[in-house]
Amino acid sequence: MNLNATLFAQFVVFFILAWFTMKFVWPPLMKALDERAEKIANGLAAAEKGKAEMAAAEKRVQAELATAKDEGLKRIADAEKRAAAIVEEAKKTASDEAARIIAAAKADAEQQVTQARETLRGQVATLAVAGAEQILRREVNAAAHADLLNQLKAEL
Fold it and tell me: Max CA-CA distance within the chain?
């Protein structure tokens, strides 16, 4: 066999194989590779979209947390204001009640002083009559001298 003929046959077989590969094998391989590249690109795009959505969701969560925190602080401040108002109201009520009790005690004390004065006047009048009776050595009629005793009682 001749080396040139063998070489020529190998070239023909190689070109037939190359043509067959380029015509029937290569397009499906390239299509599969393109589809795989497209899937990878879509996956990466979806991952980027997911990251963006995650970042946006995290921002919304942070905003909601800040809003909830502000609302909680506002409610706490309102509760503290309400508590202070209740304390002030209780102090005012207690002060009013104390003033009322003091006024009632003063009125009661004044009434007792007046009653004690009246009792003392009566006792002094009785003592005055007894003293006058002893001085005069005669009996003084209390019924007959009631006006005089009442006048004496009023002066004391």
Answer: 192
**DSSP states along 31-46:** HHHHHHHHHHHHHHHH
What is the rounded end-to-end Cα distance, in angstroms, of the chain? 172
Residue for token pair 């997911």: 50
Q: Which of 116, 96, 97 is nearest to 108 (CA)?
A: 116
Q: List pLDDT tens digits, range 98-139.
A: 999 999 999 999 999 999 988 888 887 787 777 776 666 555
Task: Give the dihedral of Cα atoms 26, 31, 35, 40; nearest 10 deg.
Answer: 30
Distances (CA, A) of 9 to 16, 44, 53, 91: 10, 49, 62, 117
* Beta-sheet strands, E only, within the chain: none
